[in-house]
């Protein structure tokens, strides 16, 4: 392995949205030209909160949609390896070995796990969800990932990966790199309701694949300053989701500054501010929509990309697992048993 490797990805729960873009995809687009890039379609992670047969039946479709969104956002398919997590059973073997290198109290201190359980309507923490960061460590280290783009919520997970890599190397010898985290510039994007981060399940998301009219409707219905009952009432810009989106997606900084000044002075209405945001968002999304249409028109291209990437990744993971088992002495243990059994068989079969 010569080039520095990056590992990142998402659970295949549907199309990606603007929150995904600012939280991770923008970083991936920027970084994948610099690093050898692996993109995981994390369907085993999906099972920690969505594990009905209907959820699983949608994985194939959702995987294709998700990969298409990532490509449409600007990732070059020639410089990215996409793979389906559940198609590589060796990752589960590595996960089993890593489970012994971290304690339950340590996992219980990962703050986002309880939030994930609560968002999924779980009254109690599933075992698989508690072990989410351990499986994520297996995902990252199975290809010896050296850099991981992360949003705010995922940083504590990757810190567990770093601890597991250090612990393994201390016990068994230097096998794994300790991956570095690359934080996104905008780690969390509030949803259109202004109440929580953007999420498909909460219905407060704008998808990367939404058409122009869908985006406009979502923007016009956005939460804004609740105390502003008329356009001539001075409004709050700080914490106002509409202006948060302007700051992230509107490249016309002079226009944004003018809107903020007039909003604070009560000289502009919410409708104008939102209409200009809708225009800015659609200009941002137009190239993504165009690229998506091209990838969708190339029938079978995305599926083949996933197949090729999965086969390549599985070969990498198999090599890693052999190295891990050799470092731990597990391969030697079985060989000793096999040699003893062979000697006993020969002794029994030898003529008197």
From TrEMBL:
Its EC number is 6.1.1.2. L-tryptophan binds at residue 139. ATP binds at residues 11-13, 19-20, 151-153, 189, 197-201. PROSITE patterns: AA_TRNA_LIGASE_I. Keywords: Aminoacyl-tRNA synthetase, ATP-binding, Cytoplasm, Ligase, Nucleotide-binding, Protein biosynthesis. Homodimer. Catalyzes the attachment of tryptophan to tRNA(Trp). NCBIfam families: trpS. This is Tryptophan--tRNA ligase. It comes from Micromonospora olivasterospora. The gene is trpS.
